[in-house]
Amino acid sequence: MIPKSHYSPNTNAPYVFSNVTTPYTSLSDHSTPLDSLVKWRETIAMILANRAPGDNQAISALGDMLKEYGWIHASHICYILSPNASLISGFDAPNVRFTLLGNDYTQNLLINNFYNWQSLRMTEIYEFGLSLNNSDGGLPHLQAYKLLYAWWLADCGYLNEARRYCESIANIVKIYTKGSPYFHGCFLQKLKDLTQRLLEHGGGGG
């Protein structure tokens, strides 16, 4: 159901607040019919099949509109397909579009994000895909989520799995030579604490 705030005060037709400037669709005005957004897959396919300057921005803007309607998974697909115009980072980063795949950080800023393991898993897969094309190894903001998950695994007795997470996180921190504000002292200390705890217990029992 479309929120009432997404209806024009003069008609019952839904409208959106963002513009998409693209030669492939009619999504460039403020009275975009819902039927046009339902065809977001076709719109993206046409843009990708006919590449032109600004198409990354067009796909990202389409994602913004889908997000306003609450279609989070659809919007994140748009962001994945427009990486140059859609930043994935911590929710405190300027111009960030998404933080965890399948999760709307604007609605779930704090504790809900931390315990959404399905979103974490999807973002880990995306992170792995990105790592195949660059030497940074991973997404800096994601390491804190992975560390929290490792703590949860350790608390549940899955020590081997938790140890592998710690090793992966430590490796990403080591090879991320550009530095990151997400690798701050508190985070590094928590990583050290969990690693030491696992060493003391032998890292077994998973």
Question: Keywords, please?
Answer:
206 residues; 50% helix; 9 helices; mainly alpha; elongated; single chain; disordered N terminus
What would your notes on this structure say?
- There is one protein chain.
- By secondary structure, the protein is mainly alpha-helical.
- The protein has 2 domains: 1-85, no CATH class; 109-206, no CATH class.
- The protein contains 9 helices and 2 strands.
- It has helices spanning 34-38, 40-49, 55-68, 72-80, 111-114, 117-131, 142-155, 159-175, 185-200, and strands at 87-88, 96-98.
- Strands 1-2 form a two-stranded parallel ribbon.
- The longest helix is centred in the last third of the chain and has 17 residues, at 159-175.
- The radius of gyration is 20 Å and the shape is elongated.
- The N and C termini lie far apart (44 Å).
What layout of secondary structure does this protein have?
Elements: H1 34-38, H2 40-49, H3 55-68, H4 72-80, E1 87-88, E2 96-98, H5 111-114, H6 117-131, H7 142-155, H8 159-175, H9 185-200
Parallel strand pairs: 1-2
Number of strands: 2
| Strand residue content | under 5%
Q: Overall 3D geometry?
A: elongated
Poorly predicted ranges: 1-30
The ordered H/E elements are: HHHHEEHHHHH
The Rg value, from CA coordinates, equals: 20 Å
| Terminal residue distance | 44 Å
| Domains, number | 2
Mean pLDDT: 81
Main sheet: strand order: 1-2
Number of helices: 9
What does the largest sheet look like? 2 strands, parallel
Judged by helices, strands and strand pairing, the structural class is: mainly alpha
Helix content: 40-55%
